[in-house]
Amino acid sequence: MAHAHMTDDARLSSLTSWYADWKGVKVAVLGLSVTGFSVADTLAELGADVLVVTESASQEYARLLPVIGVRAWTGSLDTVPGDLVDFAPEVVIASPGFAPHHPVISWAQETGIPLWGDVELAWRVRDKVTRADGSPADWVLVTGTNGKTTTTRMAATMLVAAGLRAAPVGNIGTPVLDAVRDPAGFDVLVVELSSHQLWYLGLQRGPQPVSPAASVCLNLADDHLEWHGWFEAYRDAKAHVYDHTRIACVYNKSDEATRRMVEDAEVVEGARAIGFDLGVPGPSDMGVVDGIVVDRAFLDDRRTSALELTTLADLDARGLGAPHVVSNILAAAALARAVGAPPAAVRDALTAFTLDPHRIEVVAAEAGITWVDDSKATNPHAAASSLAAYPGAVWVVGGQLKGVDITGLVAERGPAVKAAILIGADRADLVAAFERHAPAVPVFEVASDDTEEVMARVVELAAGVAADGDVVLLAPAAASFDQFSSYADRGRRFADAVKDRLARGSQGDHDAQPVPGDI
Asked: What is the model's pTM?
């Protein structure tokens, strides 16, 4: 398919400021979710000629587009719409949901049209609101298979405690473009990036690519393979978080893949590699010594001394003592310290910090049984961290596995659980994994597809096998969309079912017996 209007590379290369001449630039925006709308709204404000192409649109966004002067085409994107071809965009800006193999993405690449994500656009126009010295806000980038949101929130909280104007943005919820256009302005933006956003960032060809002050990939494990196609593509996308980092590339010493990413990264001369793990830190690392969380990276005398940030006892008292949470704290502290937060700010921030709902959240503790909602554990790596924090739990697991092999997790953690309660569309894979790797563990299936029934039955089964001192842990290791609207919906329904059962008392309790296809 021929492209009717070849891109003016020189013009796009000049678009590196809010105050550049964006008027009349022909931009196709793919998707109209919160990210897509932020892109369209920004471009309309800049005076670009915008066409939104989407399969669907909420009533609110559909109503707002004509108000801001943006046209929209809505329909099936199984093939490239003729209206998009006729529009002849100079650049296509895609929402993160558009995978590399999507027909419209393939068309843009085959015809040589530059592809941006919302993050690249935000970087180009980040100077709309500047700091007192005239410079735009620093960016700190956070990615990883698990822990992104917690680490992003923690780092932003630490920076605010240091007296800086900082905000958590990006994949966490608030689009980066909304933040760069906020008239109040910021000193630092802590940007959570998904592998989807980083794939688009890896396509950058502009003269001023995204160059964060500090960056981290927290960990790497199989996830989103249905989007990327294979693990190596997922890994390569994650690695772009370190591109052009200026001050600190923070990596997980216990995850060799993140170390290799830093070693291979093209960074600004002078950028340092800062490692973290739960062991004793070397110089330029963050770690733990005799129960004290310490910084051996951001002090002059780091070869012979360290700075105390907090203690494991204090973290445990605040519900932040799980090993994977402590790892997130170390990473967030490294990022915050890299851009100037003093140790006292790190300590003060942690005093008031609480985890988001559905992240190892204790929803009830009664009759000696603790019920824990970690519905956010949507992949095996996250579930392994939860099971490490609660060994011997009654494990509620299952959902959509997203093409990920579950056998490694069951082989590693399955034999130690007291029982397993299986939910979701991909239960057969879990049944086979337990039969092979943990045959002695009692396994119960909840076969109901009725969203209203699933968690009530889960709780009934769990109550039948849990005893005094036990933990019932919802750590699904899978996506939720087969039975629930989101991981949050799944977690809420679990918590509601627990509270409903406790309110009714233990009437009718009996010892559960493992049966195939329980409902």
From this structure: 0.84
